[in-house]
Amino acid sequence: MSDDAARNGPRVHLASLGCAKNLIDSERILARFAAAGAIVGAPPEEAEIIIVNTCGFIEPAKRESIDTILDYARYKEEGNCQRLIVMGCLAQRYSEELRQGLPEVDGVFGLNQDEEILAACGFTRTCDSGRFLLTPSHTAYLRISDGCDNRCTYCTIPLIRGSYHGRPAGEIISEAEELVERGVREINVIAQDTTVYGAEAPGGMRIHDLLARLAKIPDLHWLRLLYTHPAHFPDGMIDAYAQIPKLCPYVDLPLQHLNDDILRRMARGVTRDESLRLIERLRARVPGIAIRTTFIAGFPGETDEQFNELLQYVRQLEFDHLGVFPYSQEEDTPAALMPGQVPEEVKEERVAELMLAQQEIVFARNASLVGSRMEVVIDAPGDKDGVWLARSRTQAPDVDSITFVEGKGLSVGEFIEVEVTGADGYDLIARPV
Ligand code: SF4
Hints:
Helices cover 36% and strands 22% of the residues. By secondary structure, it is of the alpha/beta class. The chain folds into three domains: 3-120, Rossmann fold, CATH 3.40.50; 139-368, tm_1862 like domain (pyruvate-formate lyase- activating enzyme, Alpha-Beta Horseshoe); 370-432, CATH 2.40.50.140. Helix 10 runs parallel beside helix 11 and helix 14 (304-317) runs parallel beside helix 15. It is globular, with a radius of gyration of 22 Å. Residues 1-6 have low confidence and may be disordered. The structure holds iron/sulfur cluster. Iron/sulfur cluster is lined by residues 148, 150-152, 155, 157-158, 192-193, 229.
């Protein structure tokens, strides 16, 4: 370490890739580094320790992780970097390959190895030190479980993160209270599958009970549930949307497909009609509820007809937010061995067709929203003076469109009422009322 680093503690730069679950892992390890005396949040060219928290979910995510590692490796020559550490999902899945293929990396660590990572950077006897929030200070993610028992045939998550294990409710509630005490006003509840929470312990707190309890935290303003699963979406959860005012009318409901043969081969545990009925019930019980979903295009054996069925439903169901992924053939998953693998260019065409259909829906909806009022939270100042980046109750952080608010004297973290004045592509434009 340099003299400066020895005096002040080494500087740490961390690049967090992938999803919000990875982000929490990044926040946890940064808090440990900070508690041990390191200076976290340094720019990469100044940092003595650079950590890349990788994602190994699908092919493009793996590529991005590798590119990021290689990109940061240059700071060993050009900057101060003395330790380049790789952690996270990709490291968990391909530790040996990474060790052998990337000699510039000083340490490869899988999940839950924070202590080992700190030891490799010269810090011994460190302990759990909470979270160093990487989100704007008014918003945070809250993880209620890890792992997944669903075994969808295309998914690598159970291979990476293991079987489902829920956190005790008391621990989750304490963490939420702590976050709110620190100034967090919006909590986004996450897991690999949030709706299964509590189902394994009959008589215990189910997901909707947990949300009702979290909503009681006095200064919490918005509560949002992400990563639900259509196969075990409890009725109580639909009631919760109708009954808990702080719970944002927003459901993140990954459907993955709407053809029964494909759903069966994906092992999703749900049929098309069951998914459609769930959407109908949610919309009937919670008027204005926003539905976000994701689909996989080009699953093995997907015929033109099956794809068109999905496309028709996308047009008909008018989701508020939609993500589409081309199917990614992941080794060690059952779907990777299924016959009828779809050529890449066909997958890409199908993704584009679905996104085009969705674009028309969103543009028409955005136009219809002009003149309406809604509550937003200001997330950050925009590039232009007097323009702010904000989100409504139906826009989740990081994954959805946003609302640009044009106004003077606003501040980050403020919740305000706005009127929609226009749209800019997928995003809305609004002004304070
Ligand atoms: S429910 Fe989600 S995380 Fe679990 S196996 Fe299926 S796709 Fe993967």
